[in-house]
Amino acid sequence: MQVAIDGPASAGKSTVAKIIANKLSFVYIDTGAMYRACTVIAKRHGIDYGDEEKILQAINEDGIELKSENGEQKVYSAGEDISLEIRTPEISANVSQVSALPKIRKKMVDLQRKMAGEVSVIMDGRDIGTTVLPNAEVKIFLIASARSRAERRMLDFKERGIKTDQTVEEIEADIAERDYKDSHRKISPLKKAKDAIEIDTTNMTIDEVVNEILMKIQRKEKSLKK
Question: What does the alpha-carbon distance between residue 213 and residue 22 come to, in Å, rounded to a whole number?
Answer without folding.
Answer: 13
